[in-house]
Amino acid sequence: MCIRDRDNGTNVGIGDATPSSKLSVDGGIQMADDASAASAANVGTQRYRSEEDYITTLLGHSYVDMCMKTSESGYEWVNIVTNEYNLSI
Asked: Are 45 and 33 in contact (CB under 8 A)?
């Protein structure tokens, strides 16, 4: 793995020897569930989460959410995309 710091801390590359943005990743990134409450400290944070219902619907759902400011003093996890899939018994 190659982690590069370029321009005195301005740009960082993971697997990218010449990053041209604040963070450049050569490859995919993996997100996990962030179970913390939505707050100012989490604004801009993305999370992945999933749930499966074997009891009533036999459906699974996966979600990508982002923590966003939703009012003058409020913050919420806002869903960006939802995927639904069938479960087998």
From this structure: no
Identify which of 42, 65, 56, 61 has the alpha carbon closest to the alpha carbon of residue 89.
Answer: 56
Identity of the residue numbered 89 = I
Of residues 48, 41, 85, 89, the one with CA closest to residue 66:
48
Neighbours of 83 (CB within 10 A): 10
Strand arrangement, sheet containing 46-53: 46-53, 59-69, 75-86
Domain extents in the chain: 1-28, 31-89
pLDDT at 9: 65
Per-residue pLDDT tens digits for 30-62: 888 888 999 999 999 999 999 999 999 999 999
